[in-house]
Amino acid sequence: MDRNELHERLLGAPGTVMLLGSIDAGKTTFAVDLARKATERGIPAALVDADIGQSTVGPPGTVGLKFCSGMEDLGPETLSEADALGFVGALSPKGHVTALVNATAKLIARAREAGCRLVVVDTTGLVTGTLGQLLKFYKIEASAPDAIVAFKRGGELEPVLGIAQRFSPAEVYEVTAAPEEDALSPVERVGNREGRFAAYFSHGTSRWRVKPTVFMPTLPPDFELGRLEGLVVGMEDGKGNCVGIGILEHDEGEDILRMISPVSEGVRGLRLGSVRIDLEGRSKGQITLRDLFQSE
After folding, report:
1. Alpha carbon of 112 to those of 140, 165, 199: distances in Å?
2. Do 56 and 27 form a contact (C-beta atoms < 8 A)?
3. Which terminus of the chain has fewer Cβ atoms in its 10 Å neighbourhood, N or C?
4. Could you give the angle at the alpha carbon of 204 between the alpha carbons of 200 and 206, nearest 5°?
C-alpha cells in the first residue's frame, strides 16, 4: 500500500498503531511522519519509542513517551526529550523481554489516559527467531494495538505477521521497508547510541551519595560495591514512574557509591541495569544481573 494512502487510513480512524520491522526498515521515519500529520490536523498524538538500542525519544536503554501537542515537539532536538520514561536497562531485548513489554504497555496506557487519539509505537528490529516472535506476541498482547504496520524486505516477517493475524484483532498493513543500502553500519549505530547517552548526561549532571539499601534487586550482604562501577540505573519515584537514569560511581577509598545524573529530585529507588558506560556514552561492557550477583 502507498504510504500516503496508509497515512490517510490510519488518521481517518486514529488509535494505537504498532510498527514492526527489522533494523533500519524505516519505522522511525514513518512514526514521526504520521505523528506530524496528526498534529497538523489537530489530532492529539503521542510517540512511544520502544527501540531501546537506537532510541529517538529518551536515552538508550529506556522506552520513551513523547506527547505531540505541537509541531515544535517533533523537531530533531525536542523529539529526544521524553515526557515520560520506562526503564529497561539494556540495549537489546534478550533477557529483558518482561521489562521491555511492561514499560511499553505502561506508556501506551499513559498516552491513552492523557487523551491521545493516535499513539504510534516504534519497536526494536528483533523480529526473527523464537525470541523475536515471543517479544512481538507479548508486546501485541499487552498493548492491544488497533493497527499494525509491517515493514517487509523479504520473508523475515512472515512468522510474526502470522502471529499478529491469528492472535490479535488489529488491522495489519504491509509496506516495503527502506532499502538495505540505506541501513546504518554497526559502527554508525554504536556512534548514535553513544551520542544519545552523552547528550542526556550533558545537561548539568550532579553527584550524590547512594545508600546500598535503595536498589532493586536488593544488594545481598557483603556485596562488593565496586562491581556497580559505571552501571546505568533507572531512577524511580516510588509511584511507578521512571524519572531518569544515572550512572553509578564507586569511591574505592571510602567504599561508597555515588550517583551521576542530571536528575536529582523525586528519586525513591534505583533499578539496576546491565549496561556500563562513561559520561561520554562510551560502552564499558555489559553484565547480566545473574553475573552481577554471581548467582545461578
Report:
1. 16, 24, 29
2. no
3. C
4. 105
What is the bridge-based pairing of β-strands 147-152 and 171-176? parallel
Distance CA 120, CA 141 (A): 16
Q: Which of 126, 3, 156 is nearest to 54 (CA)?
A: 126
Would you tell me the crossing angle of helices 129-143 and 97-113 to the nearest 10 degrees?
Answer: 30
Residue 27, phi then psi, degrees to nearest 5: -65, -45
155: domain CATH number is 3.40.50.300
Q: Which helix (H) or strand (E) holds 152?
A: strand 147-152
User: Considering only CA atoms, which of 238, 244, 168, 159 is closest in space to residue 206?
Assistant: 244
The predicted-structure confidence for 180-195, as pLDDT tens digits, reads as follows: 767 889 999 999 999 9
DSSP 49: E
Q: What is the pLDDT of residues 227-262, one digit of tens each?
A: 999 999 999 999 999 999 999 999 999 999 999 999
Specify whether 250 is located in the same domain as 106. Answer: no
pTM here? 0.94
Number of domains in the chain: 2
